[in-house]
Amino acid sequence: MTLLTRSLSGLRPLTHLTTIRHITTTSKPAANLATARVPEQNGSQQPYFRDEPSSPVVRTAIPGPNSKKAIEDLNQVFDTRSLNMMANYQNSYGNYIADLDGNVLLDVYAQIASIPVGYCNPVLLAAATSPQMASATINRPALGNFPQHDWADILRAGVLKVAPRGLDQVFTAMAGSDANETAYKAAFMWKRRQERGPDVEFSADEIASAMNNQSPGSPHMSILSFKSGFHGRLFGSLSTTRSKPIHKLDIPAFDWPQASFPMRKYPLEEYTSENAAEEARCLVETEDLIQNFHNPVTAVVVEPVQSEGGDNHASPEFFRGLRDITKRHNVMLIVDEVQTGVGATGKFWAHEHCTYFLEQ
Ligand SMILES: Cc1ncc(COP(=O)(O)O)c(C=O)c1O
Description:
three-stranded antiparallel sheet; disordered N terminus; binds pyridoxal-5'-phosphate; alpha/beta; five-stranded mixed sheet; 11% strand; single chain
């Protein structure tokens, strides 16, 4: 999920739900499995999936013979170079992922933090097999133009119930990358509207130059991201991704700045002053780029915990400093919760650990 925090009035806040992506809706074994198992709902001491496996089962080398055969077959029609294991989702349950050879493994990462509520979650399965879901799936409306009659109720009863404080409208996107890109575009439009004036029409020059990808219609502006950050692989979001060259090689990119993200030393209690100095250094660098980068910085995008780029954490003071800087320079702060959101850090949103993000 990507959140756009409001630094000034006049921008509609955006909330994008992008997380739950893998739901088995049609498989009979899954339906049987799930209806047979009712999740434990009350009491935090009880496991949520009452009868999920109590330990992994390893029957063969991994990949086993069935998996090898299936991978070979898949390789004929699909790129398998990034494959970790071939899964059988109908036989996976709770925190345990099954393969094709009778092996069942404990999935401590929820894939890439993309299945936060467990495999074959019966509550999701019930929702996914409801008539309402079937209608939504087969009719898949162009929401902006033809929203469903009860879309407001669906949003209020769903994602808005867990919306961060101060964010009261939703913009849906298909994936994390395009959620981020939508936030970037909103930031650019917010800034240009500010510069132009709220009720000023586009000029003829802007209209003509935009069609040639030229300024002033396509203005020279930028999004600042942090070294090691990951924000997706689409064209715009990839320019802010800084984790690994392999994601970026051969792809044209925007000329946008990157600042250092704090690399703290552990154990924290032994490196208090070094870590404070490191965070201060990164904030100075960020502010310098905001003030001096040749393509003016419109927004800063940051993960509350850098995930794909190496599990890098910064202190609440760092994030508070970042918010102060962005406010002072009239720059948006975009909090990318694609990886950390929906409960992954113990709160629904990771930035809730640092409430000051939305306080100001
Ligand atoms: C922090 C972060 N932002 C954005 C993305 C991109 O999301 P998607 O793969 O859904 O486009 C990811 C994907 O892992 C991510 O971890």
